Q: What sequence folds into this?
């Protein structure tokens, strides 16, 4: 439930009817302009004819409809690209897995080779054979 404190806070944050009425008085009316402005002064303001150069509400709505269609097409392309990227990621995961397997195998092979080197050196020492470097 809203309390009186809440209403007071809302009046501080949001514009009230009284605020708008006080604000609206600050703008010149058509009569004010006719009474105090010269023809030269009024040339600075846009006329109905000037405003016809801009798009109408219907034209803007048509443009928005076209824009929505184009955005839909872009979304479809993004979805297609995302699917392609997902396939590439899967392929890269497979390649990365294969590389990791090769690294593991190379590490095991290096350990195996080092053990053989030690065994050959030990045999050469016990038999008195010379091993060329």
A:
């Amino acid at each position: 439930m809203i309390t009186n404190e809440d209403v007071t806070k809302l009046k501080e944050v949001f514009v009230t009817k009284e605020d708008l009425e006080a604000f609206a008085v600050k703008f010149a009316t058509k009569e004010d302009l006719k009474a105090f402005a010269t023809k030269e002064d009024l040339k600075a303001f846009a006329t109905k004819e000037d405003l016809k150069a801009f798009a109408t509400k219907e034209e803007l709505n048509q443009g928005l409809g076209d824009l929505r269609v184009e955005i839909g097409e872009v979304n479809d392309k993004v979805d297609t690209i995302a699917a392609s990227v997902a396939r590439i990621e899967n392929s890269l995961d497979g390649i990365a897995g294969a590389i990791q397997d090769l690294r593991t195998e190379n590490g095991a092979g290096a350990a195996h080779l080092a053990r053989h080197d030690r065994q050959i050196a030990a045999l050469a020492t016990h038999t008195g054979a010379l091993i060329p470097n």
